[in-house]
Amino acid sequence: MTGEHPQPTSTPEPSEPPHEVHAIGAPARRALASAGLTTWDAVAATADRDLLALHGFGPRALRIVRELRPHA
């Protein structure tokens, strides 16, 4: 299983802030929190290029956050 990463399997509760979702990893969680992106609406309103510009937030975190976004 070289190079494989576990896939997120469940959608977080809407009350669970994106910077606390463990599927994205600690550096990405810290990046979201440091940028003040503490709600799903704030993350959804942020352009991909701006998220990727955050130190610690890479393509994998972007994919996971976009896939896991709770739909109200």
Quick structural summary:
This protein is 40% helix and 0% strand. It has 72 residues and is mainly alpha-helical.
Primary descriptors:
mainly alpha, 4 helices
Structure explained in plain terms:
It is built from four helices and no strands. The protein has one domain (18-68). It has 72 residues and is an all-alpha fold. The protein has helices at 26-34, 40-44, 48-52, 59-68.
Quaternary organisation: single chain
What is the succession of H and E elements?
HHHH
Number of domains: 1
- Mean pLDDT value: 84
Low-confidence stretches: none
Total beta strands: 0
InterPro entries: DNA_repair_Rad51/TF_NusA_a-hlx
Protein name: DNA-binding protein
Region (Disordered): 1-23
Topology readout:
Blueprint: H1 26-34, H2 40-44, H3 48-52, H4 59-68
